[in-house]
Design brief:
The complex is a heterodimer. Chain A is built from 5 helices and 10 strands. By secondary structure, chain A is of the alpha/beta class. The longest helix of chain A has 12 residues, at 125-136. Chain A starts with a helix and ends in a 6-residue tail after the last strand. By secondary structure, chain B is α+β, with helices and mostly antiparallel strands. Helices cover 18% and strands 16% of the residues of chain B. In chain B, the strands form 3 sheets. A 3-stranded antiparallel sheet of chain B has the order 2-3-5. Chain B has a two-stranded antiparallel sheet with strand order 1-4. A two-stranded antiparallel ribbon of chain B has the order 6-7. The model of chain B has no long low-confidence stretch (mean pLDDT 80). Strand 8 (146-148) of chain A pairs parallel with strand 5 (112-117) of chain B.
Chain lengths: 178, 174
Protein backbone atom coordinates (compact mmCIF):
# COMPACT_ATOMS: atom_id res chain seq x y z
CA UNK A 1 0.00 0.00 0.00
CA UNK A 2 2.85 2.33 0.91
CA UNK A 3 4.58 1.44 -2.33
CA UNK A 4 1.60 2.41 -4.46
CA UNK A 5 1.24 5.63 -2.49
CA UNK A 6 4.91 6.44 -3.13
CA UNK A 7 4.66 5.63 -6.82
CA UNK A 8 1.64 7.83 -7.19
CA UNK A 9 2.75 10.90 -5.29
CA UNK A 10 6.56 10.89 -5.19
CA UNK A 11 7.44 10.30 -8.83
CA UNK A 12 9.58 13.41 -9.16
CA UNK A 13 12.28 15.15 -7.18
CA UNK A 14 12.09 15.00 -3.42
CA UNK A 15 12.79 18.15 -1.52
CA UNK A 16 14.06 17.38 1.89
CA UNK A 17 13.63 19.33 5.08
CA UNK A 18 16.03 18.38 7.80
CA UNK A 19 14.74 18.72 11.31
CA UNK A 20 16.67 18.09 14.50
CA UNK A 21 14.65 17.86 17.68
CA UNK A 22 17.36 17.51 20.27
CA UNK A 23 19.89 15.11 18.79
CA UNK A 24 23.63 15.25 19.27
CA UNK A 25 24.33 16.68 15.78
CA UNK A 26 26.00 13.46 14.60
CA UNK A 27 23.20 12.50 12.23
CA UNK A 28 23.04 16.09 10.94
CA UNK A 29 26.65 15.87 9.87
CA UNK A 30 25.94 12.58 8.08
CA UNK A 31 22.97 14.16 6.28
CA UNK A 32 25.19 17.06 5.20
CA UNK A 33 27.78 14.49 4.13
CA UNK A 34 25.18 12.95 1.82
CA UNK A 35 24.97 16.24 -0.09
CA UNK A 36 28.71 16.42 -0.76
CA UNK A 37 30.05 15.48 -4.22
CA UNK A 38 31.11 12.07 -2.91
CA UNK A 39 27.55 10.94 -2.22
CA UNK A 40 25.85 13.25 -4.67
CA UNK A 41 22.15 12.81 -3.97
CA UNK A 42 21.14 15.65 -6.24
CA UNK A 43 21.42 13.19 -9.11
CA UNK A 44 18.25 11.62 -7.66
CA UNK A 45 16.67 15.05 -7.46
CA UNK A 46 16.96 15.24 -3.70
CA UNK A 47 17.52 18.78 -2.54
CA UNK A 48 17.82 20.25 0.92
CA UNK A 49 15.45 23.13 1.55
CA UNK A 50 15.38 25.48 4.48
CA UNK A 51 11.68 25.68 5.16
CA UNK A 52 9.21 22.87 5.87
CA UNK A 53 6.68 24.61 3.63
CA UNK A 54 8.80 23.84 0.56
CA UNK A 55 9.49 20.24 1.46
CA UNK A 56 8.08 16.82 0.57
CA UNK A 57 10.15 14.82 2.99
CA UNK A 58 11.15 15.41 6.60
CA UNK A 59 14.42 13.88 7.74
CA UNK A 60 14.06 13.86 11.53
CA UNK A 61 17.01 13.42 13.83
CA UNK A 62 17.00 13.27 17.56
CA UNK A 63 14.39 12.08 20.03
CA UNK A 64 11.21 13.97 20.78
CA UNK A 65 12.23 16.01 23.78
CA UNK A 66 9.75 17.43 26.22
CA UNK A 67 10.59 20.93 25.05
CA UNK A 68 10.91 20.20 21.32
CA UNK A 69 7.91 17.93 20.78
CA UNK A 70 5.51 20.79 20.12
CA UNK A 71 7.94 22.44 17.69
CA UNK A 72 8.42 19.11 15.91
CA UNK A 73 4.68 18.71 15.58
CA UNK A 74 4.33 22.24 14.20
CA UNK A 75 7.09 21.61 11.67
CA UNK A 76 5.35 18.41 10.61
CA UNK A 77 2.06 20.23 10.17
CA UNK A 78 3.78 22.89 8.06
CA UNK A 79 4.90 20.34 5.45
CA UNK A 80 2.29 20.24 2.68
CA UNK A 81 0.52 16.99 1.88
CA UNK A 82 1.54 14.40 0.73
CA UNK A 83 4.50 14.09 3.03
CA UNK A 84 7.01 11.46 4.08
CA UNK A 85 8.82 11.30 7.40
CA UNK A 86 12.18 9.58 7.81
CA UNK A 87 13.51 8.81 11.27
CA UNK A 88 17.28 9.00 10.87
CA UNK A 89 19.39 7.50 13.61
CA UNK A 90 18.63 5.48 16.67
CA UNK A 91 17.39 8.50 18.63
CA UNK A 92 14.62 9.25 16.17
CA UNK A 93 13.65 5.65 15.53
CA UNK A 94 13.90 4.32 19.09
CA UNK A 95 14.36 7.14 21.56
CA UNK A 96 18.11 7.05 21.81
CA UNK A 97 20.36 6.04 24.62
CA UNK A 98 18.73 8.51 27.01
CA UNK A 99 15.25 7.26 26.20
CA UNK A 100 14.20 7.03 29.85
CA UNK A 101 15.39 10.38 31.11
CA UNK A 102 13.03 13.05 32.35
CA UNK A 103 13.46 15.44 29.43
CA UNK A 104 12.80 12.98 26.62
CA UNK A 105 9.40 11.67 25.58
CA UNK A 106 10.79 8.92 23.36
CA UNK A 107 10.99 8.19 19.65
CA UNK A 108 9.47 10.73 17.29
CA UNK A 109 6.75 8.25 16.36
CA UNK A 110 5.10 9.18 19.65
CA UNK A 111 4.58 12.70 18.29
CA UNK A 112 4.35 12.41 14.50
CA UNK A 113 3.75 9.43 12.18
CA UNK A 114 6.94 7.92 10.73
CA UNK A 115 7.12 6.16 7.35
CA UNK A 116 10.73 4.98 7.19
CA UNK A 117 13.27 4.17 9.87
CA UNK A 118 17.02 4.36 9.33
CA UNK A 119 18.68 2.95 12.45
CA UNK A 120 22.31 3.60 13.23
CA UNK A 121 24.24 5.83 15.57
CA UNK A 122 24.89 7.69 13.35
CA UNK A 123 23.85 5.83 10.18
CA UNK A 124 26.46 5.82 7.46
CA UNK A 125 25.78 8.26 4.60
CA UNK A 126 25.22 5.21 2.43
CA UNK A 127 22.55 4.01 4.83
CA UNK A 128 20.70 7.32 4.50
CA UNK A 129 20.96 7.15 0.70
CA UNK A 130 19.77 3.56 0.89
CA UNK A 131 16.75 4.58 2.95
CA UNK A 132 15.76 7.31 0.51
CA UNK A 133 16.41 5.01 -2.45
CA UNK A 134 14.21 2.42 -0.75
CA UNK A 135 11.43 4.99 -0.58
CA UNK A 136 11.94 5.82 -4.25
CA UNK A 137 11.85 2.14 -5.17
CA UNK A 138 15.41 1.97 -6.51
CA UNK A 139 16.62 -0.80 -4.21
CA UNK A 140 15.16 -3.81 -2.45
CA UNK A 141 14.61 -4.01 1.27
CA UNK A 142 17.25 -6.07 3.04
CA UNK A 143 16.20 -6.06 6.70
CA UNK A 144 14.22 -9.12 7.71
CA UNK A 145 13.29 -10.16 11.25
CA UNK A 146 15.21 -13.17 12.53
CA UNK A 147 13.44 -15.76 14.62
CA UNK A 148 14.85 -18.93 16.06
CA UNK A 149 12.56 -21.58 17.45
CA UNK A 150 14.14 -24.93 18.18
CA UNK A 151 11.79 -27.60 16.92
CA UNK A 152 13.37 -30.46 18.81
CA UNK A 153 13.95 -30.37 22.52
CA UNK A 154 17.69 -30.78 23.04
CA UNK A 155 17.16 -33.22 25.86
CA UNK A 156 18.52 -36.70 25.44
CA UNK A 157 15.64 -38.60 26.86
CA UNK A 158 13.18 -37.08 24.38
CA UNK A 159 15.03 -38.46 21.33
CA UNK A 160 16.02 -42.09 21.69
CA UNK A 161 16.06 -42.40 17.90
CA UNK A 162 19.12 -40.14 17.62
CA UNK A 163 21.28 -42.34 19.76
CA UNK A 164 23.78 -44.68 18.17
CA UNK A 165 26.16 -46.99 19.93
CA UNK A 166 29.93 -46.87 19.94
CA UNK A 167 31.96 -49.45 21.85
CA UNK A 168 28.84 -50.47 23.62
CA UNK A 169 28.17 -46.97 24.91
CA UNK A 170 25.38 -44.81 23.54
CA UNK A 171 26.62 -41.60 21.90
CA UNK A 172 24.42 -38.58 21.45
CA UNK A 173 25.44 -36.49 18.44
CA UNK A 174 23.56 -33.32 19.04
CA UNK A 175 24.91 -32.89 22.52
CA UNK A 176 27.79 -30.76 21.29
CA UNK A 177 25.42 -28.04 20.18
CA UNK A 178 23.68 -27.68 23.50
CA UNK B 1 45.37 37.97 -14.19
CA UNK B 2 41.73 37.27 -13.43
CA UNK B 3 41.39 35.08 -16.49
CA UNK B 4 44.56 33.19 -15.62
CA UNK B 5 43.28 32.33 -12.15
CA UNK B 6 40.02 31.11 -13.64
CA UNK B 7 41.89 28.87 -16.09
CA UNK B 8 43.98 27.51 -13.23
CA UNK B 9 40.85 26.77 -11.25
CA UNK B 10 39.37 24.94 -14.21
CA UNK B 11 42.50 22.81 -14.59
CA UNK B 12 42.44 22.00 -10.88
CA UNK B 13 38.79 20.97 -11.10
CA UNK B 14 39.45 18.79 -14.12
CA UNK B 15 42.40 17.13 -12.39
CA UNK B 16 40.21 15.89 -9.57
CA UNK B 17 38.22 13.74 -11.95
CA UNK B 18 34.97 12.12 -10.94
CA UNK B 19 34.65 11.51 -7.22
CA UNK B 20 30.98 10.61 -6.93
CA UNK B 21 30.51 7.03 -5.76
CA UNK B 22 28.00 4.93 -7.70
CA UNK B 23 26.50 3.87 -4.41
CA UNK B 24 22.95 2.53 -4.74
CA UNK B 25 23.87 0.71 -7.97
CA UNK B 26 27.16 -0.78 -6.83
CA UNK B 27 27.63 -1.99 -3.25
CA UNK B 28 30.05 -0.06 -1.12
CA UNK B 29 32.35 -1.97 1.20
CA UNK B 30 32.83 -0.82 4.77
CA UNK B 31 36.08 -0.64 6.75
CA UNK B 32 37.26 -3.84 8.38
CA UNK B 33 36.55 -2.74 11.95
CA UNK B 34 33.13 -1.27 11.17
CA UNK B 35 30.43 -2.29 13.61
CA UNK B 36 27.07 -2.88 12.02
CA UNK B 37 24.01 -4.72 13.22
CA UNK B 38 24.79 -7.33 15.88
CA UNK B 39 23.87 -10.84 14.80
CA UNK B 40 22.90 -13.41 17.41
CA UNK B 41 23.98 -16.99 16.89
CA UNK B 42 21.30 -19.19 18.45
CA UNK B 43 23.37 -22.37 18.61
CA UNK B 44 26.21 -20.75 20.51
CA UNK B 45 24.08 -18.69 22.90
CA UNK B 46 23.83 -20.15 26.39
CA UNK B 47 21.33 -17.60 27.64
CA UNK B 48 23.49 -16.07 30.37
CA UNK B 49 21.80 -12.65 29.88
CA UNK B 50 25.10 -10.80 30.17
CA UNK B 51 24.31 -8.85 26.99
CA UNK B 52 20.97 -7.73 28.42
CA UNK B 53 22.54 -6.61 31.67
CA UNK B 54 25.18 -4.54 29.93
CA UNK B 55 23.27 -3.06 27.00
CA UNK B 56 23.39 0.70 27.53
CA UNK B 57 20.28 1.25 25.42
CA UNK B 58 18.36 -1.58 27.22
CA UNK B 59 17.42 -3.09 23.88
CA UNK B 60 18.01 -6.76 24.67
CA UNK B 61 15.15 -8.27 26.65
CA UNK B 62 15.20 -11.60 28.46
CA UNK B 63 12.12 -13.50 29.60
CA UNK B 64 11.87 -16.97 31.08
CA UNK B 65 8.81 -18.55 29.54
CA UNK B 66 8.98 -21.72 31.57
CA UNK B 67 11.54 -23.59 33.58
CA UNK B 68 13.39 -24.74 30.49
CA UNK B 69 12.99 -21.99 27.94
CA UNK B 70 14.41 -18.50 27.93
CA UNK B 71 13.52 -15.93 25.26
CA UNK B 72 16.19 -13.47 24.16
CA UNK B 73 14.75 -10.59 22.18
CA UNK B 74 16.89 -8.00 20.45
CA UNK B 75 14.76 -5.07 19.36
CA UNK B 76 17.46 -2.90 17.76
CA UNK B 77 15.44 0.28 17.55
CA UNK B 78 17.75 2.43 19.60
CA UNK B 79 20.81 0.20 19.37
CA UNK B 80 23.92 2.35 18.99
CA UNK B 81 26.07 -0.56 17.74
CA UNK B 82 28.52 0.00 20.59
CA UNK B 83 29.54 -3.66 20.57
CA UNK B 84 29.48 -4.17 24.32
CA UNK B 85 27.25 -7.24 23.98
CA UNK B 86 29.65 -8.84 21.52
CA UNK B 87 32.59 -7.87 23.69
CA UNK B 88 31.41 -9.61 26.85
CA UNK B 89 29.60 -12.62 25.37
CA UNK B 90 31.44 -15.60 26.90
CA UNK B 91 30.61 -17.91 23.99
CA UNK B 92 31.14 -15.26 21.24
CA UNK B 93 27.57 -15.84 20.11
CA UNK B 94 27.11 -12.19 19.10
CA UNK B 95 29.07 -10.86 16.14
CA UNK B 96 29.03 -7.28 14.96
CA UNK B 97 28.25 -7.74 11.28
CA UNK B 98 28.97 -5.33 8.46
CA UNK B 99 25.27 -4.81 7.72
CA UNK B 100 24.37 -1.18 7.75
CA UNK B 101 21.57 -1.03 5.17
CA UNK B 102 18.85 -1.48 7.74
CA UNK B 103 16.38 1.10 6.51
CA UNK B 104 12.87 -0.26 6.77
CA UNK B 105 9.28 0.95 6.76
CA UNK B 106 8.54 -1.31 9.74
CA UNK B 107 10.74 -1.05 12.80
CA UNK B 108 9.95 -4.66 13.73
CA UNK B 109 12.00 -5.83 10.73
CA UNK B 110 15.30 -5.44 12.55
CA UNK B 111 14.43 -7.44 15.63
CA UNK B 112 15.80 -10.87 16.45
CA UNK B 113 13.99 -13.41 18.63
CA UNK B 114 15.78 -16.41 20.03
CA UNK B 115 14.31 -19.22 22.08
CA UNK B 116 17.00 -20.91 24.08
CA UNK B 117 16.64 -24.15 25.95
CA UNK B 118 18.12 -23.94 29.39
CA UNK B 119 18.82 -26.30 32.21
CA UNK B 120 16.74 -26.08 35.35
CA UNK B 121 18.30 -25.25 38.67
CA UNK B 122 17.75 -28.21 40.96
CA UNK B 123 17.43 -26.00 44.02
CA UNK B 124 15.22 -23.12 42.92
CA UNK B 125 13.74 -24.43 39.67
CA UNK B 126 14.64 -21.41 37.61
CA UNK B 127 16.38 -21.30 34.23
CA UNK B 128 20.03 -22.05 34.45
CA UNK B 129 22.86 -22.40 31.98
CA UNK B 130 23.00 -25.91 30.57
CA UNK B 131 25.86 -27.96 31.90
CA UNK B 132 28.50 -28.91 29.36
CA UNK B 133 30.09 -32.36 29.36
CA UNK B 134 32.89 -31.13 31.64
CA UNK B 135 30.42 -29.55 34.02
CA UNK B 136 28.44 -32.76 34.09
CA UNK B 137 31.54 -34.58 35.25
CA UNK B 138 31.87 -32.13 38.12
CA UNK B 139 28.17 -32.07 38.88
CA UNK B 140 27.10 -33.23 42.27
CA UNK B 141 23.80 -35.01 42.20
CA UNK B 142 23.14 -38.54 41.11
CA UNK B 143 26.27 -40.57 41.72
CA UNK B 144 27.13 -44.02 40.56
CA UNK B 145 29.75 -45.15 43.03
CA UNK B 146 30.25 -48.88 43.22
CA UNK B 147 29.15 -49.70 46.73
CA UNK B 148 29.99 -53.39 46.68
CA UNK B 149 33.57 -52.85 45.49
CA UNK B 150 33.95 -49.66 47.56
CA UNK B 151 34.99 -47.69 44.48
CA UNK B 152 34.41 -44.06 43.65
CA UNK B 153 33.09 -44.03 40.07
CA UNK B 154 33.55 -40.66 38.45
CA UNK B 155 31.87 -40.51 35.07
CA UNK B 156 29.90 -38.26 32.81
CA UNK B 157 26.17 -38.20 32.38
CA UNK B 158 26.62 -37.29 28.73
CA UNK B 159 25.02 -40.51 27.62
CA UNK B 160 21.82 -42.27 28.49
CA UNK B 161 21.87 -45.42 30.49
CA UNK B 162 19.99 -48.39 29.23
CA UNK B 163 18.64 -48.99 32.68
CA UNK B 164 18.01 -45.66 34.28
CA UNK B 165 19.18 -45.37 37.82
CA UNK B 166 16.17 -43.32 38.74
CA UNK B 167 13.11 -45.29 37.83
CA UNK B 168 11.05 -42.32 36.76
CA UNK B 169 11.32 -42.75 33.02
CA UNK B 170 11.07 -45.79 30.86
CA UNK B 171 12.14 -45.51 27.24
CA UNK B 172 12.99 -48.06 24.65
CA UNK B 173 16.41 -47.75 23.12
CA UNK B 174 15.69 -50.07 20.21
Amino acid sequence: MLKEFLKKYFRRSLWVYHCNSGGCNGCDIEVVNVLTPYYDVERFGIKLVGSPRHADVMLCQGPAGRATASALKRAYEAVPEPKLVFAVGSCASGGGIWHDTYSIIGPIEKVIPVHFYIPGCPPRPEAIIYGVALALGLVEKKAVPMEYHPVKLPIVRYHPEDIHFQNGWPVYDRLEKI
Amino acid sequence: MYLLSKIRETILCLKAGRVTLPYPVNPRPVPERFRGRPLFHPDKCIGCAGCANNCPAREILIADQCQEMRVVMYLGRRCTYCGRCADLCPEKAITMSHEYENATPKIADIRQDLEIWMGTCQRCGRCFKNAGPLDQLMMKGYRFDDLSAELWVYRSRAYLDKEPVVKDIDIELG
